[in-house]
Amino acid sequence: MPSLKEIKNRIASVNSTRKITSAMKMVASSKLHHAQVAIENMLPYESMLEHILKSFLVSTPDTDTPYDVERPVRRVALLVFSSNSSLCGGFNTNVVKMFQSIVDEYLKQGLSKDDIVVYPIGRKVAEKVTKLGLKSAGNFQELADKPNSEECQRIAVEIENLWMNEEIDRVEMIYHHFKSAGSQILTRKTYLPIDLESELNADHERDLTSNVVTKKTQEYLKKHGKEAEKKEKEVVKPLNDDFIIEPDLKTVLTSLVPKLLHLMVYTALLDSNASEHAARMVAMQTATDNADELLRGLKLQYNKSRQAAITSELLDIVGGSVNN
Predict the structure, then answer these.
(1) pLDDT at position 233, please?
(2) Which of 111, 177, 185, 274 is the most buried (most CB within 10 A)?
């Protein structure tokens, strides 16, 4: 049985750890709030641009755009979003596992490691790319901590040029889709060629107002999940195909599609950033709760040992006085 001093030292150690996890939870909560505001400010523009472009492409079947052309896959580019730091639960592990499985999938199809180029946004995935011996398109670690629209545009332009020059035949993104503070969905999304059907059926249900993970949050998610299923069962209304194109079709597509591609990268980055902070907040809250539970057990053990020691001393005193 441990001595009182050993138990006291353990209590002090757990208390110190609890202070750290509690502080990290508060920091993650604050960062999550800023990330939620960034997504909320960007969503109206994203939704409108996506609606305009996809309505236009769906209702104009004779559009001759190179962005939705399926080609035999000989070279692949992967945009993988992770974090630079740890202590966020299975956030990075899940991304790395999916990234590994996708690489193995392409290798089984006959591609070599030289045929796969990776844009690693975050230190954790960059380390995995180096370990696997894959080609990295650059260092984007700073982007994982500080989302930057201009840098995302530079990446989008670079990938677009590779696609137009037929140097890559498929581009995919791997990131966590931020649905709410209690739900982050690991997503594999086709970036190029543009898949209109899957994009139109994408999940746009988000809760950007709360960063507290409670039963009410889970009930909210279940409720909205049922509402989303009902919406999918409803008859799809026809899109408005009464478009007047100025100055011409090619100019409109040349301007609009790159904007959407840039926005897709930036949205995925904001999603991943918010998901990281939400995952870290939940992980640190869990660690704090575990520390509280451990402290209760240690304090109970300490009190029992102390009472046993006092009782033993009293018995010794009583026994000595009786003998005298």
Answers:
(1) 46
(2) 274
Q: Which two tokens stand for residue 308?
A: 């046993």
Residue 9 lies in a domain: no
Q: Report if residue 132 sits inside a domain.
A: yes
Q: Choose, from 28, 53, 76, 88, the residue flagged as catalytic.
A: 88
Q: Could you tell me which residues come within 8 angstroms of residue 19 by beta carbon, excluding any fewer than 6 positions away?
A: none
Q: How does pLDDT run across 145-180, given as a tens digit for each residue? A: 888 889 999 999 999 999 999 899 999 999 998 888
Residues in the chain: 324
Name the domain count of the chain: 1
Residue 125 lies in a domain: yes
Answer yes or no: is 313 within a domain.
no
The pair phi, psi for residue 191, each rounded to 5°, is -90, -50
Tokens of 319: 């026994």
Tell me, yes or no, if 88 is annotated catalytic: yes
Q: Read off the CATH number of the domain in which 93 is found.
A: 3.40.1380.10
Are the C-beta atoms of residues 302 and 8 closer than 8 Å to each other?
yes
